[in-house]
Every structure is written in C-alpha cells, then in structure tokens.
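Q: For a teaching session next week I want to show students how multiple molecules come together into a single three-dimensional assembly. I've collected the sequence lines for a complex. Could you give me the predicted structure tokens for the whole thing so I can convert them for display?
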Amino acid sequence: MNVLSALGEALVLIGTFFYFLSALGLIRMPDVYNRMQTSTKSATLGSLGVMVGVGLWAVGDGLSWSWFTKSVVIALFLLLTNPISAHALIRAAYKSGIPLWQGSVVDKYREHLEAKEKAETEASKEGGEE
Amino acid sequence: MLKRSLAIITLLIVGYWLAQGLAGVPFGEDKMLVGHYYLQHVKEQTGAVNAVTAIVVNYRGFDTLGEVTVLFIASTGVAALLWRKKRERTAKVEGSVVLTTGAELLFPFIVMFGAYIFIHGHLTPGGGFPGGATIATAFLLLYMAFTIYEIPHKAFEKVEGLAGMSYVLVGLIGLAIGGYFLFDWIWQTWHWGTDNIGRLFSGGFIPIIYTIIGIKVGTELSGIVDNMLKEEVRE
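A: Of course. Below is the structure for the complete assembly, covering every listed component.
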C-alpha cells in the first residue's frame, strides 16, 4: 500500500507547486485577463492534484476507499465548475469595460461586437425608410 | 479624521476590555459541565452519531423550532416589504451559453447534494439548514443564469407551509405519545433502528425532522431570492 501513499504525496506536492505558480501569476501578470488565465488554470490543476493525491494518500495509509471516492467527487466538481466561473468573471470584466493590457495586439471580440452593432443600425435604418 | 481616530480608540479600548475578560479563561482544559452528559448518552438516547444534530434536534429541539420560525418570519417580512401588484424580472442580459448550459447541468447535482446533506444529518456534519441553503443556491444559480426563470410559486409556498406544519405535527405526536413537546417517539417508544446505530436508518426522528427543515429552508431562501430579484413594472 506504500506505493499509493508515495503517489499521493507526489501528487499533493505537484498540486501545491501549481498553487504557488497560480499565486505568483496573480502578482506577476499585467492585466485582469492575463491574471485570470494564469490563476484559474493552474489553481484548477493544483486542486485536482491535491485532492486526488489526498485521496490516494489516505488509502495508502490504511484508511478506507471512501476517502478516495469523496476526494475524486470533489475534484470532478471543481473541474466542472472552475472554468465556468472563470468564464463568467472574464466576460463580466470585459462587459464592464476593463481595458486590455496596452501591449495587446488584437481584440477580435470588439471587432465582432462593432460589426454586429453596425449591421443592426443599418437594418433599422432601412426599415425606417420603407 | 477626528471621527475615525475616535472610533479606532474606542474600538481598541473595547477590544482590550474583552481581551482582559477572556484572559482569565484557560484553554485546553476540560471545563464541560453539561457537555459530558451529552457525549456519554447521545448514542443510546437519540441514536445519532453526530452529537451536534442530536443536541439541536433532540435535546434542544425547541430552539430549532424557534430558528425555523425566525426564517419563516424573515421570508414573510421580505415578501411584505417588497410587495407590489405587478413585479417582474428586469434583467435584460441572458448569461452566455457556457453559463446557462453549465447552470442547467449543475442544477440537479447541487439539489442532490443538498438532499444528501439533510438526509444524513445524524451521521455527517451538516443538517437541515446547510442542506436547505445548498438547495436554495441551486435555484439562485438558475435565477442568475436565465432572465426568464421563475420558481413555481404556488407549489413552493404550499410546500413551505406544509413543511413547517409537519415539524410542529411531529412534535405534537411526541406530546401525545411521550408526554412532552418534541419527544422522540420513533426512538424512545418504538425503538426503531436501535441495532444499526451509525447507518442511514437510525437516529430516531432526526432524519425526518431534518428532511422537513431542509425542504422548508430551501423553499424559503429561494422565495427570498425571488422576491429580491424582482422589480416593479409600470405600465
């Protein structure tokens, strides 16, 4: 059973390393979007590592398999919900007008929105003339 | 500036006073008086492994009834304060596709988890109030993701009232059988589940009462959310 424990410990170590990277990204990155990118991705991966690792560690130390089941359920829940919350946060940040980093090159989303708006105003104009 | 510094000084004095009062209380020493009784007798008297829920529902069931009443009054008060003849959701922007799909997918899982919490109140941490709050969170998620979503009002309000009534009813059955209000008749009189303490079908009437409380709290908090998210519509 010691293989399981060692594997779990390694996974927890990897997970905490990714937690550290995500906190570092939060300080290091220039704007909201880059910060969200680094922090959500590595924090999700880090949580997965820590949770699966804790489950394996507990099983390896002679506790029941229900530890592993529960931790995997929590990990799956985080895996499904974290990207959705990150998506909602970033979208809300963009909609409330937070600017991109000045080094950014393209903003395809703004171009798309402007094109859509233009098409809509033209359509309404034509409708008014008729 | 003067106001702020005066407030800080007052708070510091109050904090020092409280710390002085607490400094005489030793930590890490056994100071339990009633606690010993609870810990030693909780299993044979109530059948629950979770001592907290046994105390909250069995030994001090009256307080829980009061808490449920407080929540009910809060929900009724919010409804009475925000009452208008015609009110609707005024949110204009639907959540993105990712958000709506995610909320739809997650909703049954969150409701299931809430039900798990309140059904297992006598075995694991939690109970009726956390479970009900989790279920209300699921409905809040739907409210946040969709602009047109509304809870089925008629059913929800009826279920809420029925749950509250059945809690009192369980207590009254105890009064009829055992002689006092909220008497645990399933455990004390029927001895039902005495040989499987620690499994699902044990714990006297704690699971039943917590299911009732969970349903009540879930519907109540959803109702409060519904009331607060609506705005008046003028025609």
